[in-house]
Amino acid sequence: MSLDQLPIAPKGGLTGHVERTLKQALMEGSLKPGERLVARDLAARLGTSPTPVREALLKLVASGALEMAPAQSFTVPALSLEGYREIIDIRMVVESLAVERATPLLTEQDLVVLRAINERFKDARARNAAREALHENKEFRLMLYERAAMPALYAVIESLWLKIGPSLNYLFPVDSTRLGEPHNHDLLLEALARRDTEKAVRLIRKAIEDGAAVIGEHFAEDEAARSQAASGRTRTG
Fold first, then answer.
1. Which of 19, 166, 189, 218 is the most exposed place for a label (fewest CB within 10 A)?
2. Is the dihedral of CA 207, 162, 93, 110 positive or negative?
3. Alpha helices in the chain (DSSP H)
């Protein structure tokens, strides 16, 4: 889902609808680091007045998912490499706990749904359809974590995904040499089906680590490029 594809807001509960829509866009990477959001423009796309849009944007600022910017606008924060690594460390703990608690509670129907989501994810990933793949990835992970039946834990995980989501774009395009390898989700589903909690936890940690390795390289490259640019300005100034 891109900004141009945001759904028209329903009547009533507009602020909540806008907040949920923007959260989804953040977690799925539809909004990129540094992207600027203007309440009036978003209101026009959503078919509503600027007031509920601004209220939703301010809520996301309060949660750290967005930042205030000049001229009545908001921006998607650009994480530093250090900030990114901190979030990964926290995700390793909280998402492992969610999988540990969810594994024995999953029903057979849950597994059917998770497998279907995973197939859509793999299909989109093979086509390098980043938007589709990131949507299905988010659906898979958050459904699994929700099954832990720990609302406070789920809220923590969601808050971290709001911060990390825009950076998931760095996972694409996928290296074609890796497309034939078994995906972490495939192995995770096997462990979940066997109710092998210990292995499921190891695999969710591996999934986080694998993604972090790819994304971390991009963060390091970006920081090096900014440092080099700043050094060049200093020499010429």
1. 218
2. negative
3. 14-27, 39-46, 50-62, 81-102, 108-126, 130-146, 151-164, 184-193, 197-236
Collapsing DSSP states into helix, strand and coil, what is residue 7?
A: coil
- 38's CB contacts (< 8 A; 6+ apart) are 71, 72, 73, 74
DSSP collapsed to 3 states, 121-165? HHHHHHCCCHHHHHHHHHHHHHHHHHCCCCHHHHHHHHHHHHHHH
- The reply to whether the predicted model has a pTM over 0.90 is no
Please list, residue by residue across 85-99, b when 16 or more beta carbons sit within 10 angstroms of its beta carbon and e when fewer do: eebbeebeebbbbbb
Residue-wise pLDDT tens for the chain (237 aa)? 555 555 555 544 688 888 999 999 999 999 988 999 999 999 888 888 899 999 999 999 999 999 999 888 999 998 888 999 999 999 999 999 999 999 999 999 999 999 999 999 999 999 999 999 999 999 999 999 999 999 999 999 999 999 999 999 889 988 776 677 778 999 999 999 999 999 999 999 999 999 999 998 887 777 676 666 666 665 655
> Do the beta carbons of residue 48 and residue 155 sit within 8 Å?
no
Q: Any idea how long the chain is?
A: 237
226-236 burial, b for 16+ CB within 10 Å, e for fewer?
Answer: eeeeeeeeeee
Alpha-carbon distance 135 to 24, whole Å? Answer: 9
